[in-house]
C-alpha cells in the first residue's frame, strides 16, 4: 500500500529504568503502520537517550538508542515513556525537554512519562492522565495540571497522555488512525491482535481490574464465565450452582474474595460489554440490550444511568462526536 504522504518522525526518549513495554508497544504500532503504508508515507521511528549509551529497562532488558538527544532532529511526535526511572528524573533530561519538546508537532507520554512532562512544565494548564497509581501524585506535585484519573488516555491540543503500559498502544493506534486513516489503524490492530481502539474515555478500571481475583478456583472460574457469557443466566442462584455452593455461601464468599457483590460485578461486566458494542457496531440499543443480557432496553438504560450517568443512546452519540 503506497502513499504520497511525507513520513512523520517519531522520537522515543530512553533513560535507565524505563518500562520496556511503554517503548516497544507504541514503537511497534508506528512501525507496522509505516510498513503498511509504504515509504515514504508512514513514520520513521527512532530512539534517543541523553548520552546515546545503552539503557537498562525496568525488566532488565538493555536497549541501544539510535543517537543522543542532542543529535536528534526535531520530530513530528515526541514520546516520553514511563517506568521506575521517572521517579527521580534526570535534571539534564528535564532541561532538554523544556528546551526542545515545545518544538515537536505532537507531544505524547505513556504511563508515568506524564510525571516527567509535568516536571518540565509541559502539562501546565492542560488536562492529563497517567497510571492510576500515580494520578494523586501528579495532581499533588503539579496543581496546575488538571488530572483525569479514569480515562486510558487524554488529548489536550497537541499533547496526549496515556495511562499505564498497554494504554500506550491504544493511544498510538488512535494517533495512527488520525494520521493515516481507520484502515491502516485496523491493519495494525489486526497484526498486534488487539482492539482497534479502546476510546480514550474508557475507564482504566474494568470490572476485572476493579475487582480482586478470587483465590478459590471455582470462584475464579465463575468470574471468567460471567465475562464470557454476559447474556447468560447470571443470577446468584445460577452462579452458585456453577461454583457448587449454596447461594448464600456463594454470595458471601464472592464478596469476601473479590471485594464486590456478584450483582455489582455482573452489572459492571454487562455495561462494559454494552459500551463496546455501542462504540464498535451499528447494532440498535434493543439488540445490544439482548446481547448483553438485559431483559429490556429500559433495564440497560437504568444500568447505564446508574453506572455512567448517561443513557445508552446519549453515550453512543457522545462517543461518536468525540471520536469523529
The gist of it:
Keywords: Transcription, Transcription regulation. This is GlxA family transcriptional regulator. The chain is of the alpha/beta class.
Q: How would you portray this structure in words?
A:
The chain folds into two domains: 185 residues, Class I glutamine amidotransferase (GATase) domain (Rossmann fold), CATH 3.40.50.880; 117 residues, Arc Repressor Mutant, subunit A. The chain contains 14 helices and eleven strands. The mean pLDDT is 89. Keywords: Transcription, Transcription regulation. This is GlxA family transcriptional regulator.
Any descriptors?
Arc Repressor Mutant, subunit A, 12% strand, Rossmann fold, 2 domains, two-stranded antiparallel ribbon, 47% helix, alpha/beta, globular, 324 residues, 11 strands
Per-chain topology:
Elements: E1 8-13, H1 20-37, E2 43-49, E3 55-56, E4 62-63, E5 67-68, E6 77-80, H2 91-100, E7 106-109, H3 113-119, E8 127-128, H4 135-141, E9 146-147, E10 153-156, E11 159-162, H5 167-180, H6 182-192, H7 207-210, H8 217-228, H9 236-243, H10 247-258, H11 262-280, H12 285-291, H13 297-308, H14 312-323
Parallel strand pairs: 1-2, 1-6, 2-5, 6-7, 7-11, 8-9
Antiparallel strand pairs: 3-4, 10-11
